[in-house]
């Protein structure tokens, strides 16, 4: 994909349905009783992986051309033994949540993923699920792995890493366990599973950093609309903050407070940010966000902010391409995402002519340009997304600042979360 530089970006749009919420609605609906349907379900390949795994588990799933997904749930514990391995593709959320979702079923189930997912750490899920009574055979702590389901019992699990995927896997296993299951988080992570359980008539209690569910609860079918994905909106919001005379308004976007840390960062950077929550359907606040360029500054992301903007860090780095400077610490988790996002980001930004340095747990980008003054635009160049959707989109936003066209290798990875990203970019550039 070759991208020309752009002067400004303007417009009003909706972004695809939230990926994290879509995974949860699909899985929770499969464990509920009756027919659920979801408008504006995430169209990317990751949520498609979840739907096809659910079909292999015997769940009737339909999706139509308008983006509505219908799921016939048969209640807790009703998955069928799959004939073949469940393929989570590139999706960590699919793999980890389903490890928890199948663990209380009396069958063995093999789960596999692509080469990126097969490098990502799974012990963080294996440990709590085994404590609950299932057995998991993995490949040195990674996928491919086999979950040998069993009667589970509730536990109180103290998580070592702040991870919503781990928390959600334990809670989904907890629905199938005897007694109460609690997760104690080291820091608050996205709370979509808890909110989805409430939306489907179940019960999940959150007291500070402790989330608990009781086993055997009844979940009812629901008809819901998925809000737009804040993490997809993030790329447009960053571009609007960074490019002079820019303004972007995103409608019907998810505004769950565990996801919106970026907005505060954009204010610190110097942008004008307007947010309005319009509804809270399914316990998920959603509404309108407008970001306008004002000034460009230096921003430092503190470790305690990281869980609230972990997926937005590649986008935030792109602020630095346009004359800002971004320093991130306390984000070692970036190294175990779809790619090593610290190494891939620094290599890609340097290739675009932007100063970038790795830290063990973060990066520093921008400031003095390689071979030029700070105010100079980056040269542009050729950056490799290494198959990582968010890296491809971050490089695209950074490349808008360049003096010359840039090429992004592996740009088709955007289909993971944002099919149509480049067409939308074309439309928003003025
Ligand atoms: C997600 C949780 C986060 C995030 C990922 C989606 C989720 O991962 O980075 O893109 O849907 O629960 P971790 O749980 O590994 O932090």
Task: Provide a compact summary of the structure.
The protein has 430 residues and is of the alpha/beta class.
Describe the structure.
- By secondary structure, this protein is of the alpha/beta class.
- 28% of the residues lie in helices and 26% in strands.
- It has 12 helices and 25 strands.
- The longest helix is centred in the N-terminal third of the chain and has 13 residues, at 19-31.
- It starts with a strand and ends with a helix.
- The model is unreliable at 368-374 (pLDDT under 50).
- Residues 20, 93, 163-165, 168, 190, 310-311, 333 line the site of shikimate-3-phosphate.
Helix content: 25-40%
Ligand names: shikimate-3-phosphate
Largest sheet: 4 strands, mixed
Q: β content, as a range?
A: 25-35%
Task: Name the poorly predicted regions.
Answer: 368-374
- Overall SS class: alpha/beta
How many β-strand runs? 25
Query: Radius of gyration, Cα only, in angstroms?
Result: 21 Å
**Net shape:** globular
CATH superfamily of the largest domain: Enolpyruvate transferase domain
CATH class of the largest domain: Alpha Beta
Number of helices in the DSSP assignment: 12
Strand order of the largest sheet: 2-17-19-18
- What does the average pLDDT come to? 96
The CATH architecture name of the largest domain reads Alpha-beta prism
Number of domains: 2
How is the quaternary structure best described?
single chain
The name CATH uses for the topology of the largest domain is UDP-n-acetylglucosamine1-carboxyvinyl-transferase, Chain
């Amino acid at each position: 994909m070759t991208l020309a530089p752009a002067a400004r970006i303007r417009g009003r749009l909706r972004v695809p349905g939230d990926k994290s919420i879509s995974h949860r609605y699909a899985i929770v609906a499969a464990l509920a009783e009756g027919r659920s349907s979801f408008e504006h379900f995430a169209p990317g390949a990751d949520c498609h992986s979840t739907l096809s795994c659910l079909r292999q588990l015997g769940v009737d799933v339909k999706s139509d051309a308008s983006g509505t997904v219908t799921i016939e749930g048969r209640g807790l514990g009703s998955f069928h033994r799959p004939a073949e391995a469940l393929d989570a593709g590139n999706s960590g959320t699919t793999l980890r949540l389903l490890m928890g979702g199948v663990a209380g079923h009396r069958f063995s189930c093999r789960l596999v993923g692509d080469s990126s997912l097969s490098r990502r750490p799974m012990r963080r899920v294996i440990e709590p699920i085994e404590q609950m009574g299932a057995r998991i055979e993995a490949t040195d702590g990674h996928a491919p792995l086999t979950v040998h389901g069993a009667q589970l019992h509730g536990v109180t699990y103290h998580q070592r890493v702040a991870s919503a995927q781990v928390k959600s896997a334990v809670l989904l296993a907890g629905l199938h366990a005897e007694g109460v299951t609690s997760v104690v988080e080291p820091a608050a992570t996205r709370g979509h599973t808890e909110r989805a359980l409430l939306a489907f008539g179940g019960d999940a209690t959150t007291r500070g950093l402790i989330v608990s569910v009781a086993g055997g609860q009844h979940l009812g079918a629901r008809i819901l609309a998925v809000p737009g994905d804040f993490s997809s909106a993030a790329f447009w919001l960053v571009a609007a903050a960074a490019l002079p005379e820019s303004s972007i308004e995103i409608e019907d976007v998810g505004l769950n407070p565990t996801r919106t840390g970026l907005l505060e960062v954009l204010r610190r950077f110097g942008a004008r940010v307007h947010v309005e929550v319009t509804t809270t359907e399914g316990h998920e606040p959603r509404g309108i966000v407008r970001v306008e360029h004002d000034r460009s500054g230096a921003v430092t992301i503190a470790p305690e902010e990281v869980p609230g903007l972990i997926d937005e860090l590649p986008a935030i780095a792109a602020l630095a391409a346009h004359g800002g400077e971004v320093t991130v610490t306390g984000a070692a988790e970036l190294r175990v995402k779809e790619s090593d996002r610290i190494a891939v980001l620094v290599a890609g930004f340097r290739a675009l002519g932007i100063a970038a340095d790795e830290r063990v747990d973060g990066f520093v980008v921008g400031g003095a340009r390689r071979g030029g003054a700070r105010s100079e635009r980056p040269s542009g160049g050729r950056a490799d997304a290494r198959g990582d959707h968010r890296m491809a989109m971050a490089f695209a936003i950074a490349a808008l600042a360049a003096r010359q066209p840039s090429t992004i290798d592996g740009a088709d990875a955007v289909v993971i979360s944002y099919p149509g990203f480049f067409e939308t970019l074309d439309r928003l550039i003025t």
